[in-house]
Amino acid sequence: MTVKPTCQVCNENQHKYKCPQCYKRYCSVNCYKKHKSEDFCQANVEKPPKNGEKQLQCLEKQDEETEKISEEVLGRLKESEKLKDILKNPHLKKLLTEVDKNENTPQLINDLMQEPIFIEFADQCLDIIH
Predict the structure, then answer these.
(1) Global pTM exceeds 0.70
(2) Around 122, how many Cα atoms within 13 Å sit in the side-chain half-sphere?
(3) Per-residue buried b or exposed e for 78-88, using 16+ beta carbons within 10 Å of the residue's own CB
(4) CB atoms within 10 A of CB 102
(5) Distance between CA 91 and CA 96 in Å, rounded?
(6) Phi, psi at residue 8, to the nearest 5°?
(7) If 0-12 CB within 10 Å is exposed, 13-18 middle and 19+ buried, where does residue 31 land?
(8) Helices H / strands E in the chain, number of each
(9) What is the phi/psi pair of residue 114, to 5°?
């Protein structure tokens, strides 16, 4: 079983996400908001030296593998009545369509974290996943 690193904001829970600008690990919407309001978020993270690029790529691949959602969790998302109800909201449908079509998804999601219905959607997904 792979154990995820701890949230770098609250230092209590396992992280679930990474900031799209600075890659700081966080576990919830509240920690994301706290990070954005209190931390100095570096949008331009320094590039590693060329001799470390291969090691960095290997670490990124390991990170991606630990963050995949299992079929069982996807099934819980699919079957959740609460999530189905939230997804009936026309405004949320429009927002999710924008996310799907957008080329700068991390920035758009960052912006959408100010939308109450999007936060409700994200919280519900997190509740189901964990």
Answers:
(1) no
(2) 21
(3) eebeebeebee
(4) 13
(5) 9
(6) -85, 5
(7) buried
(8) 7, 2
(9) -95, -10
Q: How far apart are CA 10 and CA 25, in angstroms?
A: 10
Neighbours of 120 (CB within 10 A): 15
Q: Are residues 119 and 78 in contact, defined by beta-carbon separation less than 8 angstroms?
A: no
Q: Please list the pLDDT of the chain residue by residue as tens digits (130 residues).
A: 456 688 888 989 888 888 877 878 888 888 888 888 877 676 544 444 444 555 555 555 555 555 677 888 889 999 999 999 999 999 999 999 998 888 888 888 888 999 999 999 999 998 888 7
Q: Which residue has tokens 């570096």?
A: 42
Q: Which residue has the tokens 């966080």?
A: 26
The 3-state DSSP composition of the chain as helix, strand, coil percent (nearest 5) reads: 60, 5, 35
Amino acid at 112: L
